[in-house]
Amino acid sequence: PLLLPLLLFCAHADALSVKATQSKYAERLSRMMRAVSVPESTIALVPSASERTLLRGVSAALDDDKVVDAFTILYEDIAPVRLAGDLIFRTLESRVEAARNGKAKLVETAAYTDTELLAARKLFDLVDRDGSGGIDRQKLLDSGLLRSVGHCDGCACDSVRNCVKIDDLMVEIDSDGDDRISFEEFMLAASRLLYTESNVAEVMDDEAKRLLCELDSLADECDKTVLDELAIQAAARRRPSANERFDEMIVTFAEWESRCAAAADDTRLGRVLAGCFAGAKIPSLVAALKLAYVDYRPLRMMGDLIFRLMRSLV
Question: Any idea where the EF-hand domain is (predicted)?
């Protein structure tokens, strides 16, 4: 369904430089962006790591007028971008609403502060190493979290792989019985079952640092020379991945800005280019755009097309 709009856009790409602003689309995009621009402590309650990345990117984009202007022009002038954007923002709005409700519940039930929520999210993500959004029995075993906070003192388990303490904890915390601890379940039980200290945020930060050290140690044990050689051999046998293409585009925008910044003039295409120059320097926005480019094929096609248009200006 995207083929015809793409062909039409390619045939009339120069229309971008003269097309009048369609205020209804600009207003819609502005409303959607602001609706999902929320504090980091609210983003922490969104289960999906990918969606949290997108939300951070939207918030970062709103802080730069040139980026917002570029997004608005693309949203107004390219129907496939508009369709994809509407779908993504609709999903993000529902996630933000659920996150707000979850945060309100946590604050009401356990009086958590924003600092404690952020510290807990950091710790939760380190235990949830595959980013699935839930912690199962095996992840708890592998993390050593219970042992580090004293819950395994005097444990009479036959082995660490048959831990009664963890089994009991799963039953206690897993309120919906799906054998996975969600972030909200983790937070509701954390101060009651895991920690006795009054400063929960400090304890969780310490645990996060410990787990990070463990991960660093594992990484140091890898033979980096062998891994690098394998990567070189693999790269020689294949085309650049979507990740690599996106990274190359970000580097290219920096190079273009250093030698032909004047190309970012007051035409609509020039304003898009100015937004690209500005956005390429905002890490959280780059991360969000990269995720969208890699994970959503229609947006990747549009990204490649927009990049070619920007190349025509410089």
Answer: 161-196
Percent over 90 (pLDDT), the chain: 40
Whether the predicted pLDDT of 11 surpasses 50: no
Domains and CATH numbers, the chain: 3-98+226-313 (no CATH), 113-221 (1.10.238.10)
Q: CA 40, CA 256: separation in Å to the nearest integer?
A: 33
Over residues 200-243, the pLDDT tens digits come to 555 555 655 555 565 555 555 554 555 555 555 555 555 678 99
Q: Model pTM?
A: 0.74
